[in-house]
Structure formats: structure tokens, C-alpha cells
């Protein structure tokens, strides 16, 4: 659980006010304390779990107690709806398709990923319909769920040197906090591929200046998500959104870059903790969930 990793490391100062709770525990609780609740991992909830989460959300919200609830489990967009909406609104220039739709990609290359995980692309770039169908067949043979597969049009966002950039922001109840800027030669970046002096300086400037806060805030409002991390890039002065993760990695002892990225880590953690402390509700009042 990402929040547990953070609380065991840089988040120790918040360990006394943040209490991670599984959905199973929530669903089986007869009461909870009034306070702030962040509903995370929305995309991993089954339809039945989503209904249970929504019932708990509604009960807490209507309790009459001092509460703050982030990420409505019913209204918050999942990955497909988000990417499709951003394409229809002209924010993203690439389209997305569910495997179970009748529609097929209008342009290639494409890649396959899943709607409910954070493992990135499950295929190489696929350059035509035959390659796409072969990749789908291979995933099906591995027992992968067709309902969760998405086909996404690929956009080459590398700069003139062949460098790709992945930017990330956290969003916490209206506040946009820059997280990181990864650079590398691979089109899918999970960790920074470049840690030279120039790349480190660019990342630090991004985190400290937070240049895209207005645009990113607008996208979170479109997505109806109150807490999470958005991953995106900037190409030709245009933001292209990859995803919003509602249970994002915050910090971990094994964060890439180590001491080289310490100024970025410290700056982010200070801003992130400050925001959570601003929103904290200290209450011992109990809210009944069920008889």
C-alpha cells in the first residue's frame, strides 16, 4: 500500500494522524470516526464494491458531523472515461478504445494497457491491425480479461534529442503540488532514465515553479477527482495526459535517484505534508455505518 510505504519513511511525522484502512475493513465496520477520508484505488473496485463504497461515502457525508471526503467512488472518472473525455474535449490529441467496443483505432501505432492497473503498456507499439490482433490474442491466451483491455493511440513526444519526459502532479482537495519530472530514452518512463546535472536541474525547477498548476487543476475538476497523481507530458506547448492514479506512490526508501534527487523529494514532501495538515480533522466522534 503506497501510503504505508510513505508513512514508514518520509511520512513518519504524519503517522499519528493518518490511519490507512482497507475497503474490506470499511465495509465490515459498524462505525468510523469523523474526519477526512480519501477513497483511493477507485479503478480497482468491482461494481459491487463501488456500490458499497458509495453507500459508506453517503452515510459519512450525511452524518451531520465535521467530515471531508475526497474521491467520490461513483462520480470519479476511471481511466477510460478520463482519456475518452479529454480526447473529446480537445485536450488530448490521441484517442482510446475499449477492446469490447465495435470501434477500431483510426490511426497507428497503438499499444494495449489495462483500465484497472498501473503496469503501463502490456504490449510493444503495434503498427497495424494484424499486429494489434496478434497482441490481443496473446493476452487472451494468458487469461487476461478482455473487459479491462484498452487500445491507446501512440503519440511520439520525444524532443529533438530523442528524450521523453513524464511530468507528475499531486492534487489534494484543490491544491496542485508538482511531484517529479522523469527524463529518458524510453517512451514509457517508470523511473528517471537520466540523472545528469541538466536533467536534475530541470526537474528541480519544475517542482519548485509548478508551472502547469492551472491546467492540471482544471483536468482534475473535469475528472471529478479530489486526490491523486496525474502523469502527463508536454509536447509543442500542449499537455497530454496519460492517467490519474487515485492510490499513487508517494515516497519510498527505494525511490530512484537517491541523494541526487533529495532536493526534489524534500520540496515535495514539505508541500504535501503541509496540505494534509491543513485538511486534517481531529475528532473522536463516531459515525454509525450499519446496525
Order of helices and strands: HHEEHEHEEHEEEHHEEHE
Instruction: Return Rg in Å.
Output: 20 Å
Give the overall average pLDDT: 94
How big a fraction of the residues is strand? 15-25%
Structural class given helices, strands, pairing?
Answer: alpha+beta
CATH topology grouping of the largest domain:
D-amino Acid Aminotransferase, Chain A, domain 1
Tell me roughly what share of residues is in helical segments: 25-40%
Summarize the structure.
31% of the residues lie in helices and 21% in strands. By secondary structure, it is of the alpha+beta class.
Structure description:
The structure is a single chain. Strand 7 and strand 8 (about 175-185) form a beta hairpin. This protein is an alpha+beta fold and about 290 residues long. The protein has eight helices and eleven strands. The protein has three domains: about 1-75, no CATH class; about 95-155, Dna Ligase, domain 1 (2-Layer Sandwich); about 165-275, D-amino Acid Aminotransferase, Chain A, domain 1 (2-Layer Sandwich), CATH 3.30.470. The two termini are about 30 Å apart.
